[in-house]
Amino acid sequence: MTLVHGSGARETFDLIMKTIVSKVPERLRKVNGGMGIDVLDDGAVIPIGDKYLVITMDSYTVKPIFFPGGSIGTLAISGTINDLVVMGARPIAIMDSITVEEGFELNVLEKIVNDMIDLLKKYDIPLIGGDFKVMPRGNLDKIIITTTGIGLAQNPIVDTRIRIGDKIIVTDPIASHGAVIIASQLGLLDNIKNIKSDAKPLIDALLPVIEKYGEHIHAARDPTRGGIASILNEWAINNDVTIVIDRSKIPIEPEVRAFLEALGIDFLSVASEGVAILAVDPQYSDDIVNELRSRGCKAEIIGEVVKPQSELLKGKVIAITEIGGRTIVASRGLNLPRIC
Amino acid sequence: MTLVHGSGARETFDLIMKTIVSKVPERLRKVNGGMGIDVLDDGAVIPIGDKYLVITMDSYTVKPIFFPGGSIGTLAISGTINDLVVMGARPIAIMDSITVEEGFELNVLEKIVNDMIDLLKKYDIPLIGGDFKVMPRGNLDKIIITTTGIGLAQNPIVDTRIRIGDKIIVTDPIASHGAVIIASQLGLLDNIKNIKSDAKPLIDALLPVIEKYGEHIHAARDPTRGGIASILNEWAINNDVTIVIDRSKIPIEPEVRAFLEALGIDFLSVASEGVAILAVDPQYSDDIVNELRSRGCKAEIIGEVVKPQSELLKGKVIAITEIGGRTIVASRGLNLPRIC
Fold this sequence. Notes:
2 domains; homodimer; 5-stranded mixed beta sheet; PurM-like_C_dom (chains A, B); alpha+beta
């Protein structure tokens, strides 16, 4: 059996569980009762004193390297920050390992590094080390950036606390990043010329809200690969619930929606890089939406967590369609290469 | 200007300094007065309470993926552990990001992961998370593994504490890993059939010694890319000293030496993956060698740190040759691809 690019989130999840996680003995899956590899969340949590060290790791490749709204550098730093923020952690440092192909232009590398450092400066986050390698020509397509994010949390958000009745909130219009990348790859940027990638750190908009509402936020993620469809399915499966969302409530730029619909791509599966999805206590959902809006977000409540009506619906995500129908939302990786 | 694979350590160092480090503002180069990107050591140090969190990051690619004595999996885990150990840190957890090319064989991935997990089990180190991606065919040659090592140190070893008179110790015969990889690439494995890669974690042999002798060990590194020539040059430059080594005192398997000499490759520049080089207080150098030998190492004192006899010799490494001559040891990356 060989490995295939662009497999669905479910297949990749199963592969990682079977090939890697299941081989790691129980005692070596986490440190000091924290959160480790068995959780498959964005990061790991290590209790240190009365706080929690949160460490995330992610590899970034994207084609094209530069796109409307940013570059692979913007993506790497935003993504790393956001992986920490959605776990409730304040970033304290980032490390990066950059691997480029022989023949990579130095001035292109400089532009990418500048994009990274501009964001680090803006949010005052130290870059404390890393690695840099040049691979022989033909061994790598251009560039891969792998980052490690290091953060501290008082109350890390673990995505297994979801309860029946929770409201699902999306912080901003989704799928703009994915749409821009798809359009770039297909030579169709003219079709969405007012749209830019949403890639940005969620520190200003989301972190203060997470710190304020703490335990009332039961789950938080940034819907990158696989879009919100992938995250919602993961939440439904891991918490044995049904999640119902209303497609007409989901914030999305009309131009992005029209572009993706014309291609037959469901926007629920398309990546965002500066948006978060939350599951929150219904008592606080309006307050949280208002707080997010006061910070410049276009947040919306898009659905809720319900008791599964049958065994079949346990672990499933249901979408109410624009004409009132109900469909099951599958979790699938988008079959287009290298989107985030 | 484009980037070239296999450039010397000096060129890569200059490139990293110019393109990345110099762009990061002073205040964002470290956390809480720890050690950060300006040090260019194997890892970063963050003071946390009365201890120090040490975090390392490294990307591993090697051709062939399997070699006598191990695989890229052995290399990734040994290298990560050793980067922590030579900073005086006890590993508490590892994270990994594996990227493979589409079409990569699943059973090959499983073998590599097994090599990784076998070492983690042996040394009881948790694997607490990471990332896994499949890249489209043609975008990557086989596999890259990037790791993050997380450790705790009481007294991190900073390589700027080297003093005149320090003795240089090598813990075991050098260059076996590099020789095996070079032989594999050239189809010459028959010429060194008794040699295996030295890739192994340095926890049992070196960590107790570092913890026992603490501040008397002034510098420690594992001589991977560029071999001991590269590390010694870095130490000489960063500490404004001359380092003199005696080539006849350097432990190396005769078969490895003969093989490299036949190819015209200086063993000082060839990588080891389970060896450390130390600069220690001369008062303790014999004790440290004996302690290392009692733990199964073939440690030797190979040289010492001296006062530069002229401005020209400041920051230089001098080797006493087998016939008593003196040569300057240059730092150069080996021009053979993907050795570690």
